[in-house]
Design brief:
Length: about 375
């Protein structure tokens, strides 16, 4: 077993173990991947102020996100196809998050269903919703999330039209799925991954299986999904979702100041500054560059969370310094899961918390809630 010291170690382990099509689905972005690279580069460009002579004993990373007490201001973001990284991956991720004391968000496009995950945890998790063209089906997903006692609904707003991800097409990870000679050859070299995934309780989208007319095969199901992302999605739908849901509502995919201002008037509890991990509009701004403008625009009218390239505890602190009240991790979570299953997810969270704690101390902070632009050079 190699020594794991950071998230990138787990990324390399996952890359060796997981089928290329599934790994690239997590790892890559849309079109030329300019925004994917910008997410990383712009985080790296933020430099800390190292402080000395300050008492930094008895530090704490505890905070709140959307009113929920958390061990550190990090939530696991919704990641589609998680159960193809490791059998029952959504359940394993939810368990690891629950034990660590942070929120887990289940994707609509998960392999394990809402009910599968709810049956394996003792505390509520968050559920991510795509508002499909079929509003009746979307409403049924909300009702299922309520029945599972999910504590927050994360409405994803930036997938009205799906951005093209070149590697998914080249790898055959399309909707409907397509096997290529390269895909078959790659899978043959990773028998451990194959055997593991085959032990999972489901092999398709658990939240959608058996609930769509005539969806008797994965291909039919995939064709239905491809036609369900809705270009008519509008702010009026937020009102509809909020009324039907009745609980904590988080709007994910806000990147523009004008959209942030509108979001702050909807009655939602929080927004997530996010560019979908660089997987939607390529060439747009990185999430971290958009964050300060959004925070300034909405003030204290709505809580601002951050998503986009976080792979270390230092990245978490950078986002908090620029005004985020909490952060979300997608790729980092999937790397840990793909590398080592539930133990890998726990390892990611331990790494992030340790890096966050050490960086706080070296910046002169004892409480993570005190993070501000003052800890960054030139901010």
């Amino acid at each position: 077993m190699p020594v794991v010291t950071n998230v990138d170690d787990l990324r390399r382990m996952a890359q060796r173990r997981v089928a290329k099509a599934v790994f690239d689905y997590v790892d890559r972005g849309s079109y030329d991947e300019q925004t994917l690279r910008a997410n990383r580069a712009d985080l790296d460009s933020l430099h800390f102020r190292q402080r000395v002579g300050i008492n930094v004993d008895n530090r704490t990373t505890r905070s709140t996100m959307a009113g929920q007490e958390v061990a550190m201001p990090v939530a696991i973001a919704p990641v589609g196809l998680t159960g193809l990284n490791w059998a029952d991956g959504e359940i394993l991720g939810a368990r690891a998050a629950e034990k660590f004391g942070i929120p887990f968000t289940l994707s609509t496009m998960s392999i394990c269903s809402i009910e599968d995950v709810a049956s394996e945890v003792t505390k509520p998790f968050w559920y991510q919703l795509y508002v499909f063209r079929d509003r009746g089906f979307a409403a049924s997903l909300i009702e299922r999330a309520k029945a599972a006692k999910c504590s927050a609904l994360v409405m994803t707003f930036d997938l009205q039209i799906q951005g093209q991800r070149h590697m998914d097409l080249k790898n055959g990870l399309t909707v409907p799925p397509r096997l290529t000679a390269g895909t078959i050859l790659d899978v043959m070299t990773k028998p451990g991954w194959v055997l593991n995934v085959l032990t999972g309780r489901r092999k398709s989208f658990g939240n959608l299986e058996g609930r769509i007319p005539d969806a008797k095969t994965l291909t039919t199901l995939g064709q239905w999904i491809a036609g369900q992302f809705d270009p008519t999605l509008s702010w009026k739908d937020v009102e509809w979702v909020k009324k039907l849901w009745g609980g904590k509502l988080i709007l994910k995919g806000i990147l523009d100041v004008e959209d942030a201002k509108i979001a702050a008037t909807t009655g939602a509890d929080a927004i997530v500054v996010s560019n979908h991990g660089g997987r939607q509009l390529d060439g747009t701004v990185s999430s971290i560059r958009a964050l300060p403008e959004v925070v300034q625009a909405v003030g204290d009218r709505i809580e601002v969370l951050f998503d986009g390239g976080i792979c270390s505890g230092q990245d978490v602190l950078r986002a908090l310094a620029l005004g985020a009240k909490g952060t979300m991790i997608g790729k980092a979570f999937a790397y840990g899961l793909g590398a080592m299953g539930e133990a890998g997810v726990t390892k990611v969270l331990e790494i992030l918390q340790k890096e966050l704690d050490v960086t706080m101390a070296l910046c002169g902070l004892r409480d993570v809630k005190d993070a501000s632009p003052a800890i960054l050079r030139g901010a």
